[in-house]
Amino acid sequence: MAGFLCILRLAATKNLPPGLFGKQSDRFPWRFSVGAFSSTAELQGTPEEDAARSVSAVSRPSGRRVKLPKRIVRSPTDILDALASTVGKDATGPHYRYVDDPFFIPTNATNRRIFALSKESGRKAARYMVKKYPALFEKPKADPEISAFLAASQLGSQRPTEPTVKDIVDCMRKGALVAAFEAYTELNEKTPEAITPELRQELLERLCFHNSDDAIDSDLLEEKWFAHYIQKEVRRRWKVGGPADKVFQDIKPKTAEAYAAMICANARFLHVEGANTLLEEMQQENLPIPVQVYNEMIKIVPLLKDSIDSRWEMTMSFLSSMNQAGVAPNLQTFNAVLEVISRIAMWRRSRSTALGVFAEMKRCGIEPSLASYHFLLQIFCRERGPISHILLDVLQALEGKELTLRDPKDSNFFPTAMDVAGRHLRDVAVARKVYDLLWTNNNSLFLTDALKDTVFHGNFLKVLVAGESVENFFKVYDELVPMTLVPDSNLLLEMVKMVEFHEEPQHLPRIWSDAVVFGLALKDNMLEPFLAVLLNNHREDLKEAFAAIALDVKTRIDAQFLDRANRIPWSGPVISSVVRLLLRNGQMEPAWEVVGNYINKKTETFGFPSEEALSELVDVLVAAEQPTRVKQCVTLASDLGFMDLVRSAEDLAKRLRLPEQEIQKWKRIGSGSVAASLGNI
Fold it and tell me: Cellular location of this protein (predicted)?
């Protein structure tokens, strides 16, 4: 820095050493002198003239012309994308939606969803206040004024008192389609001639696209990401008799564009009878049918027909109509046909027909999209069908290509491909190829929601846990968990089986730690099998760690609130495993607490402890010379019908050095009356 400042001082005093910046002629070739212009008046002119003078002046000192490059249109995040490409994916960092602090990062799937949606809920609450009290937000606070911050610019703005055509257009542009329709209705009643056919058509198309609702805010990204978990209905249904139907009735005469918008909307929102009726009307009017209408009608063929043959006949009739009308198919047409075939994948000709569709696409010069391959995998790799390795051919076809989103269902390809690699082929190498393809360029953007992301990475880990070594699996596991994926109890249970199969039980405490962190420790399908695996391992160096896990299970179950709706009660297998694991490490007191709790609260427990657990506990209690507890265990064994333990009552009494009178009572412990009397001793 000091050297740079020194150079600046030399430049200010014009005492630059000769040749410091090169020759005099090429030191500053971009400089020009104001004296080059004849007068001050020459400096005044239009911006275009000033630019021309500047360029000409630039070219004078060196005698070379400057060629200005064409402007490159860039998005606001291009610089950030360029910087991110130099860093790569950080497996240790959370998603940007979460706070980058280990104390605040949510550790299970439910908390992650709540955290992300709560932030978005705050934005929606702010918009609600702006919409409810618009007068408080009309005074501009920014300079220059930012119109998006004003109440009038918010989605769902109020209908104007005296609507005009401009008001309808403004509401449509803002996505406030309900307000736009209200303004349209009022204006149509007063001065219908003011509404042009083009405006009616645009309003109809927007209402059809959004099913007569306001447009969804484009910046509510988290709601879209978790849409699968928060949507109340599986699919939105068409609003029969709604605003779109009313605008369509106002269009006279009916145009092909109006029919096309209504047919596509009815088909998209599953009003298949309405779509079919409108198509018949369109054919009767001899109106040209665009390719988009054929595409949507082909998609709903499985809803219009029941049998396999009738579905295919109807599909072929649509394709024949297109051919007769001279309508050229596009990518969506072929994808719609493949989707129909995937719905009838058990059809004996489904595979050959699907390959014929791909051949026809090639003949028409149409490149298949990821959705095309998605349907192809569904056709060839169905659950109860023969094994097919067509995924290898698909991956080879996609190798080296830059993938782009060309069909809305392109996002289904990667979850389907990983599912085929894992469940259908069970091939680790193929699964890794699919995974590498996802993380090539920007292909990870094809995972467009939380469900697809979870399914893809979950299936990837499941195929690795079944076919990789323990060391290689945990390398990938550490990269994905917990920042990319929160595992479920099924995956953790598969990991337990993998560790047991490879005889590496030293990883079991780590799996339990993850189960605790992710809130899966007390899951019904997780706890009993996990404790059973711990019990089957007898390594001396791990018995202390296993006993700590058993004690943790006891503490967590006992600490549950009594009024908890999903409270996990003690079960017989869990009691047996916890007791035996604790006894192996010499922890008699907590083991007895578990059994004593069962004796006192049998009605709150499912099942009963095993005879092995009671026998081991009795041996430890006898060695500790605790006859009262031994009596309770023997009484419990009598109630449960563990006769081997009951028959040893006399031997136990002798080992405890009890008086002869007590020994005689223990000999008769098998009878119900004596067992009942022992409870009062």
Answer: Mitochondrion
The pLDDT score that the predictor gives to residue 674 is 43
The answer to whether 633 touches 595, Cβ cutoff 8 Å, is yes
Distance CA 123, CA 162 (A): 31
Q: Among residues 616, 271, 130, which one has the least CA distance to residue 139?
A: 130
pLDDT at 139: 66
Within 10 Å of residue 70's Cβ, how many Cβ atoms?
5
Q: How far is CA 158 from CA 152, 162, 185, 289, 662, in A?
A: 8, 12, 14, 37, 90
pLDDT value of position 63 = 60
pLDDT for 49: 43
Q: Where are the alpha helices (DSSP H) in 468-507?
A: 470-480, 489-501
Of 25, 60, 92, the closest CA to residue 478 belongs to 92
Name which residue leads in pLDDT, 64 or 670: 64
Residues comprising the chain, all counted: 681
What residues are paired with 606 via a beta bridge? 571
At residue 571, the 3 state secondary structure works out as strand
Query: CA-to-CA distance for 590 and 526, rounded, in angstroms?
Result: 22
Cβ atoms of 447 and 418 within 8 Å: the answer is no
Residues 348-406: tens digit of each pLDDT = 889 999 999 999 999 999 999 999 999 999 999 988 888 999 999 999 999 988 899 99
The H or E element containing residue 83 is helix 78-87
Tens digits of residue pLDDT in 140-181: 667 776 666 665 554 445 556 788 899 899 888 888 898 899
Report yes or no: 11 and 4 within 8 Å, Cβ to Cβ: no
CB count in 10 Å sphere of residue 433: 19
Q: How far is CA 236 from CA 138, 212, 232, 239, 269, in A?
A: 35, 12, 10, 9, 6
**What amino acid is encoded at 265 in this protein?**
A
Give the Cα separation of 25 and 644 in Å (integer): 109
Residues 636, 641, 646, CA angle at the centre, nearest 5°?
A: 65
pTM: 0.79
CB-CB contact of 515 with 526 (8 Å): yes
**Rounded Cα gap, residues 74 and 51, in angstroms:** 23
Q: Which residues contact 314 (CB under 8 A, 6 or more apart)?
A: 301, 304, 305
Residue 514 neighbours by CB under 8 Å, 6+ apart: 481, 487, 492
CA distances from 65 to 46, 52, 58, 60, 632 (A): 22, 12, 8, 8, 104
The pLDDT score that the predictor gives to residue 492 is 95
Is the four-CA dihedral 161, 163, 168, 173 of positive or negative sign?
negative
Burial (CB count within 10 angstroms: exposed 0-12, middle 13-18, buried 19+), residue 1:
exposed
How many Cβ atoms from other residues are within 10 Å of residue 334's Cβ?
A: 24
Residues 6 or more apart whose CB falls under 8 angstroms from that of 518 comprise 107, 108, 109, 482, 486, 487
DSSP per residue, 418-473: HHIIIIIS--HHHHHHHHHHHTSTTGGGG--SHHHHHHHHHHHHHHHHHHS-HHHH
Return the higher-pLDDT residue of 62 and 30: 62
- Cross-strand partners of 571: 606
The arithmetic mean of pLDDT across residues 101-129, rounded, is 83
Tell whether the model's pLDDT for residue 101 goes beyond 70.
Answer: yes
More confident residue, 643 or 427: 427
